[in-house]
Amino acid sequence: MKAMILAAGRGERMRPLTDRLPKALLEAGGRPLVAHLIERLARSGYTELVVNVSHHADMIERELGDGSRYGARIVYSREVQPLETGGGIAYALPLLGDAPFLVVNSDIYCDFDFARLAAAPTALAPGAGLAHLVLVDNPPHHPGGDFSLGAGKVSADGPGRLTFSGIGVYAPALFARVPRGTRCQLVALLGPAMARGLVSGEHHRGLWMDIGTPLRLEALALALATRGGR
């Protein structure tokens, strides 16, 4: 299964740090955020990677290169302007192929075992499902959560809401009606799919951090310093 890393956003909440660097290249533990993610993906067997880029795209491409230093092969999906998550994935479909694929936000840090998702494409066979999401406990900055999980299905409404981790496996059909090169939010596609019972999910109860602000980046750097950078 191929994997896509979302790295095209401007990182407005990270300014002024992201005025000079793309968010994916901000460092914690002596390495860029995206490098931590690529290493974990490669260790889990995901070696065919697509990285979408826009803001400071050249810097990301120079830093990551072809991915060989990480034991992976990286190709890039360049967006003139960031297309939001749904639009960015739709734009990259020619690079991702016809089979279900994994997508991960570049601004998270977690101990999730990506190898657990190897069976997800079977559940996303044509007509069976369109997405499989990894949900986590609600962090302090997002107490209301995003979605509910019950009997393995994800819904937009319901009790015991959890937060979307930024990790998901998607069938290409989810993005089939998004005109290539247009902006589209992922939730606009997931909502109708949930209503049809076509979104499954699981609850990751381990380490997960959304590195969306300078303070959270500092918190991650401190945590990694106590663990030797990993």
Walk me through the structure.
The structure is a single chain. This protein has 230 residues and is α/β, with parallel strands linked by helices. The protein has one domain (3-226): Spore Coat Polysaccharide Biosynthesis Protein SpsA, Chain A. The chain is built from 7 helices and 13 strands. The strands form 4 sheets. It has a 7-stranded mixed sheet. A two-stranded antiparallel sheet has the order 2-3. α4 packs across α6 (186-195). It is globular and about 45 Å long. The mean pLDDT is 94.
Number of helices: 7
Helix share, percent: 25-40%
CATH architecture, by name, is Alpha-Beta Complex
**How many strands, which pairing sense, and closed or not: the largest β-sheet?**
7 strands, mixed
Order of helices and strands: EHEEHEHEHEEHEEEEHEEH
- CATH topology assignment: Spore Coat Polysaccharide Biosynthesis Protein SpsA, Chain A
The outline comes out as: globular
SS-based class: alpha/beta
Number of strands: 13
- State the end-to-end CA separation: 25 Å
Strand content: 15-25%
What is the CATH first-level class name? Alpha Beta
Report Rg: 17 Å
**In what order do the strands lie side by side in the largest sheet?**
5-4-1-6-11-8-12
The parts where pLDDT drops under 50 for at least 5 residues are none
Mean pLDDT: 94
Going by CATH, what is the homologous superfamily? Answer: Spore Coat Polysaccharide Biosynthesis Protein SpsA, Chain A
Please tell me the total number of domains. Answer: 1
